[in-house]
Amino acid sequence: MQQAKNILSYKKYWAKRFGIAPVLPMSRKEMDDLGWDSCDIILVTGDAYVDHPSFGMALVGRLLESQGFRVGIISQPDWSNTDDFSEMGKPNLFFGVTSGNMDSMVNRYTSDRKKRSNDSYTPDGAGGRRPDRSVIVYSQRCREAFKDVPIIIGGIEASLRRIAQYDYWSDKVRRSILLDSKADMLVYGNAERQIVELAHRLSNREKINEIKDVRGTAFIQDTFPEGWAELDSSTLKEPGAISIQTRKEVERDRIYIRIPSYAQVKKDRNLYAHASRMLHLETNPGNARVLVQKHGTQELWINPPPIPLTTKELDTVFEFPYTRRPHPAYSDRKIPAYEMIRFSINIMRGCFGGCTFCSITEHEGRIIQNRSENSILREIETIRDTVPEFTGVISDLGGPTANMYRLACKSKEIESACRLPSCVYPDICKNLNTDHSSLTQLYKDARKIPGIKKVLVASGLRYDLAIRSPEYVKELVTHHVGGYLKIAPEHTEEGPLSKMLKPGMGSYDKFKELFEKYNKEAGKEQYLIPYFIAAHPGTTDKDMLNLALWLKQHKFRLDQVQNFLPTPMATASAMYYSGKNPLRKVTKTSEEVEVPKGLKIRRLHKAFIRYHDPENWPMLRDALKKMGREDLIGSGKRHLVPAWQPAGTGKSHAQKAKKKTALKGKSVKRKSTSTQTRIRTGRTKKRG
Questions:
Q1: Number of helices and strands in the chain (H, E)
Q2: Strand partners, 96
Q3: Upstream peptide bond of 426 is cis (omega within 30 degrees of 0)
Q4: Residues 521 and 563 in one domain
Q5: Which domain holds residue 270?
Q6: Of 612, 642, 669, which closes a domain?
Q7: What is the pLDDT of residues 115-151, one digit of tens each?
Q8: CA distances for 528 relative to 224, 355, 485, 546, angstroms
Q9: Please, which residues have CB within 8 angstroms of residue 335's CB and are 6 or more apart in sequence?
Q10: Are the CB atoms for 46 and 121 separated by under 8 Å?
Q11: What are the residues facing 236 on neighbouring strands?
């Protein structure tokens, strides 16, 4: 893998003379107090501004500040006009736009497309403080406010929409977000390398439309640079010979892959699945090539992913002088997402699990980026000494996956050449180092720090990796579980598991055995809480029935159930939309994937997991009869649901609710036409 310029090695911008801001400003008055006449960079975010490394805009803002730039924050602006976007004045270099830590559509809607009433990234958890498709709306307002200022979009929403992608909420394929937002450039992934390089190059008076060589960026262009060759993968056929544009031989890093165009993937679901496959094959920074996708007459150009940060770089990023608190402008209002993470510590980035329903690999990459143990221990001490209301308990010492710290391929050469989507499916790769000793030692050292009563692990755990290191499981169970440990088998049946790239239940059983053994040795009463996904591509009604029977056999009654949500660019989303399996070569006759679509079947699959809820019994009885499994209806231990129905539940309850809704609808009709419109659309204020 090629070397990257250290993000700490750039010559600092002249504005470094202003020093470090106590907190990045969110208003003109705060700028005046700092002695600033202008901001060099203004970051626009859909989240409340919390000066903490777990909040993307705080991390990016402090990083750019460390380079000498004056950075302002526009947090959760009113998007109905440009007032909030122009209040801090015109940025000297660029606007950086993101929806926040979450995709705005995932943040605002449930998997059943119902609007949420709350937002964890907003003061007091209030809903409705960000628009749908926030990146597009914010970018448009920035352009209206200052037409000639470059706009760079990034964050999870931009990352996962960098190519033409299926949009679950509109049930159609949308263009790359770069075109819809009319931004000048997109940075994907965590993007520290890209944003630092772009800031310095723009400060050196390079034009944004002339910068084409930064890894981890995407942009639009009408003509191709000289010396490049095309590998055409825009059809389902094997790519032909390289089309040489200027010479007979080209270097590998001067080859771009043409994937099916927006028009093609919108029309042909097979080509959509194929394009998804090609993108995921080009995600390893060690071997990825440029991707090109035509949108009308324009070409979307996507450079290879950025080189992962070194440990020293990552340490520095997490140790900037954050206040670790919400901006003072919020006063005493609570921000739920901050309340949840303020005593937690992120020890690494990335995930090599490759779960098809998850977006971590597409965003953070599958190469684990680790912080040093000393940096992590210093952060624990910082929390102990500076964060209000700290009681001595670290709520989580983890990351995207709790136990991938310092795990990596044994060979850098193999790692750079590998194109497999997962290092742990169908089994753990023989080239993967699974030694948990560094993490075990980190846990031991963390709990020995004076003033620390307990260090919990609340992040998701790969139990198939953990069982390779029993000593780690012993340390975890004995000292770092707060009564319950959440793990995610996701399913019990091979059909859906093979489409998720998740291990079978054999690994779960081995982990459970170790968990119970060390629980007993420690004299503790702690429990495993498994998570499962309903209605995932590849799941049949029979699969869900078998999962329900497994849950009942093991006496699990789960209240939190996740229905599969097709997020942009995920492999499982491509399965959902296309009905094909892009984990393998896609042809017209290649493997078809059964997809549970429609509200009725999705509710049924969710009901199977919550078999114990009387509200679900009528639906389950009907399903069992259709499946020829009436033997599971009754009051015995072998039965799944009883034949009787408690009063006030099930169908009778649903009929009452339906009648109540109908009566409410009649009363609405008596209101004025304008009021009817507001009630029907849910709008009481015009939004841009």
A1: 26, 22
A2: 43, 152
A3: yes
A4: yes
A5: 223-296
A6: 612
A7: 999 999 999 999 999 999 999 999 999 999 999 999 9
A8: 55, 21, 5, 20
A9: 48, 50, 120, 121, 122, 123, 125, 326
A10: yes
A11: none
